[in-house]
Fold each of these.
Amino acid sequence: MGNFLVWVVWILAAFACLASAVGVVTMRNPFLSALALIGNLGSLAVLYLLVSAEFVAAAQVLVYAGAVMVMFLFVIAYIGPRQEAPWAGGPSWQTVAAITAAGAIFLEIIVVIGLKAGGDLSHTQPVNATFGSPGWIGRLFLTNHLLAFEVTSIVLLIAAVGGVILGSHTKRSQAADAGS
Amino acid sequence: MQGPDIAWYLGVAAFLFGIGALGVLIRRNPLIVLLSLELMLNGANLALIAFARHAQNGAGQIFALAVMAVAASEVCVGLGLVVAIHRRNLTLDVDRLSELRG
């Protein structure tokens, strides 16, 4: 019974994930695209829970669907929703080439998975209860993966400084804009 | 609790990556390009976490968290660029913005 429930939840989450991913790419309004991406991130968090990655699922909802997407929605509201007609005027050669390239990437990955899936990908052993819990992740971060932790903090700091520099609008740059 | 195999998760991850690549290639609005990039990163994240469960090793989950931080930084800088382009009254079209010069 538990097995059946896991499958039902997995199918629902995977379907929502794929449908919202298609929505992100095909919607004309950027606002709706961002909302579809929020749905995508939420259903991905459900998939993470099913592979016993509780802390990553929580971080996904809090950091990604919360903070990052709110920033996206603010910028879209600031710029103003502008409709774009990506499918207007029939498929250009660029669109055809893009669909071919994306399909080729997808097929390659599927073929590689299919070659491997018969062997050892189909047997997954059960894990103990602490796998993926916040305490376990924290201990890993501060012992085995301390360098990754520190480098991540430096990357975030540099990105914050870069965002401030890009967003700052000084008198000098205004004068330069007026002059140009 | 025995759910689907890891291969199913990898299939979903491959689809996410493929559709994200398609969005990056065909959309012209830089905001949608950034959103499609997020899709690609999430596909990679799902594969990492599925493999972490398969190998019973935490390194995949740690790396997924690092990818999340990199994605947040990328969005920060990318949105800063979009706002700067908008302030200069340039059209938000990646085909016309091929030269990022003053």
Note: Chain A is about 75% helix and 0% strand.
Amino acid sequence: MGYKIVKKRVLGPDSKMFVIEAPYVARNAKPGQFIILRVNERGERIPLTVAGSDREKGSVTIIFQEVGKTTKLLGTLEEGDEILDFVGPLGKPTEIENFGTVMTLGGGFGTAVLYPLVKAIKEKGNYVITAIGARTKDLVILEDEMREISDEVYITTDDGSYGRKGFVTEVLADFLKEGRKIDRVFSVGPVPMMKATANVTKPYGVKTIVSLNPIMVDGTGMCGACRVEVGGKTKFACIDGPEFDAHEVNFDLLMKRLGMYREEEKASLERFLEEIKKSGRA
Amino acid sequence: MGRLILNRVPMKKRDPKERIKTFEEVALGYTPEEAIKEAERCILCKRPPCVKGCPVNIDIPAFIALIQQGKFVEASKKIKENNPLPAMCGRVCPQEEQCEEVCIIGKKGEPVAIGRLERFVADYEAAQGEVEIPEIPPPTGFKVAVIGSGPSGLVCASELVQMGHKVTIFEALHKPGGVLMYGIPQFRLPKEIVAREIDYVKRLGVEIVTNFIVGKTMTLDELREKEGFDAFFVGTGAGYPRFMGIPGENLLGIYSANEFLTRVNLMKAYMFPEYDTPVKVGDRVIVVGAGNVAMDAARCALRSGASEVTIVYRRSWKEMTARIEEIENAKEEGIKFMILHNPVAFYGDESGWVRKAELIKMELGEPDESGRRRPVPIKGSEFRVPVDTVVEAIGQVPNPVVPQTTPGLKTTRWGTLVSSPTTGATTKEGVFTGGDIMTGAATVILAAGTGKVAAKYIDYYLRNRDKPGVWEELTKDIKE
Ligand SMILES: Cc1cc2nc3c(=O)[nH]c(=O)nc-3n(C[C@H](O)[C@H](O)[C@H](O)COP(=O)(O)OP(=O)(O)OC[C@H]3O[C@@H](n4cnc5c(N)ncnc54)[C@H](O)[C@@H]3O)c2cc1C
Ligand SMILES: Cc1cc2nc3c(=O)[nH]c(=O)nc-3n(C[C@H](O)[C@H](O)[C@H](O)COP(=O)(O)OP(=O)(O)OC[C@H]3O[C@@H](n4cnc5c(N)ncnc54)[C@H](O)[C@@H]3O)c2cc1C
Ligand code: SF4
Ligand code: SF4
Ligand code: FES
């Protein structure tokens, strides 16, 4: 039983990459899809994007940022350890064609989710411009990987410690202002950043796709926890998405719904950190 | 025996004041003496109407006679000839509309407590140690995939494996059991009992693969072509929640019953923070609907810290679909009922949390297709009540994942699979169905019954599929 971690890599201060043995998931996983895992018997089910998969080896790559109890707990696992439950691939794959010139934006940890997309977009023969942003230099992830597969790469940091000072959306805004032809935009990151992207591209009528990250439980359309409002209609992100047309998404609602369990998440994390301290691990 | 005893032997229950603080089982079951005493009320009818009232036609007088003789394990075996899930059905069947409704004694007094007796012998047998495994015939070489591990899938699988077929159940969630595991709460159907039945199915030789969503992880056709399955049973249930579609529905604090019950039961949110999944229940909770699902949600809300829980239902007491016993239990526990009311909108505070529900008064008009009187809103009767949490329990429809990813599998306009009512065969050769995705949301025993019927015809199909016209024969009474 269980799903074995065959490889672990530390990407940054709070971000890690795992390669996990999950042959069934590896077999059919496509860019844009995600998995749901549960670390142990008392664990929560959390969704993570499929960052890559290898059919031959039967393995799936995930990249995650340690933000709370479950992701921190996950981060303590080592190569050879097992994850209790791992199910997927879930959600609809990204619709990728040869659009022409595609601009992809990754904000903070969204860059990890963006990575497999960029790869697939490039493989379809698109000209790919990638802009990745982070709060500060240390938090910029996957820069080398992105350079390898994009035609142009731009980096921004909020504090100017690396690349251009400011937000990724400003790079996009400048291009559009200059009249550069961009046929499609993909934007993945914190909700305010995705919302900003939508606002930038809307006046120009450039179709923009965002990958939404609402709280999920089952990921199969059974619970409705993941509901989002798109074009005034309620959709289940796990089966209708997770990607949607940015110009139709109600981002404010998404932002609020993500905060539903803030107090519980905080309590859970504190309790976990306390336990780690006691056991002298950390 | 002679004289009729009009009143049942009461079953002990936990005190309402105590039980609303825990998820421990409410009903405590009979002792052997009580069971014998209750069994003696049965007059062992020669032409027993109760048997016809049971959807799987358990030989009720036969098993009750065995209880009268103190042969409890034999009684349990007798039941299992028709129903492999007696511990569960004894607990959750709507007996008052099935076997007990037509019991002769019910004409003069209270009907024989068939469900309680069924539960008693099943629990008694389990307490004797591991239940014996029947002898399994030699392998037939056929492989059957059962999709979904609710009662229909479990029963279908256990029947097929006992006919010598190799059976694998594929389940989307991390635990098998379907609604029995994620929906019906611990205090009504302890998960240990569900686990016991599942363990039995495994010991029979059925392989259960969890974390496998047919249609996503692999499609049904891939299972056929790449994994060599010869026949399929689709028992994926009716787990797709309906929402009312009214303004404010996506505010924080508004759950579908499925989400609420899954968090509480499957993820054990009632033990947060020992278990990681939280559930957030405010002081004032309203639950919309009045079926079993609504009662379960209301009683879970009460046990999760709500101070006031109200069931809001658009029809009246008479039309409620929940088991009578559960409505009684809910009342005893202090759940309030607001009948002939319906929410029309929800309003939230700045953080987006629900704070008010706007309700409208209803009256009953002419009967609708279901034969129940149609609720009609009374114009201008709207008013607002303060709420902190809302659970919508207004019904579920079949999950579309399997039908959408399986070419050739036709659905009705209710999302159920088009199938033969007598054999369970669908519009795609080699694929059978049962349970809620066949019938629409129904009951555990009906799901079990359809699973059993499908197993019989799957076996027939496998043994005869090379003869011409077999599939046509199995599907001849399909109406689209
Ligand atoms: C489709 C999808 C793909 C995702 N892909 C990635 C990825 O590739 N890498 C990555 O690092 N993160 C990804 N996320 C986000 C990731 O699921 C959350 O960071 C994780 O659940 C946090 O859990 P926690 O216990 O560590 O933190 P918590 O303390 O529980 O929560 C921190 C924040 O994470 C969010 N969150 C909490 N629980 C859930 C949940 N069950 N489902 C979704 N979000 C939740 C909330 O916004 C919360 O405020 C994805 C989310 C979705 C919906
Ligand atoms: C809260 C609640 C209370 C109830 N109370 C009662 C009661 O008191 N008495 C009574 O008789 N009935 C009751 N019912 C109804 C009863 O539980 C159902 O009728 C019965 O469980 C249906 O059984 P099923 O076999 O069709 O599937 P379900 O029990 O619905 O199980 C279906 C299973 O299939 C899995 N699945 C779905 N899609 C896929 C897929 N693509 N791949 C793999 N697996 C999949 C699901 O995860 C699930 O585990 C209640 C229902 C609910 C929700
Ligand atoms: S299975 Fe249900 S309906 Fe049949 S006898 Fe038992 S309790 Fe009655
Ligand atoms: S109808 Fe009632 S009295 Fe007659 S056999 Fe059935 S349970 Fe016994
Ligand atoms: S996560 Fe449950 S329906 Fe989407």
Note: Chain B has 18 helices and 18 strands.
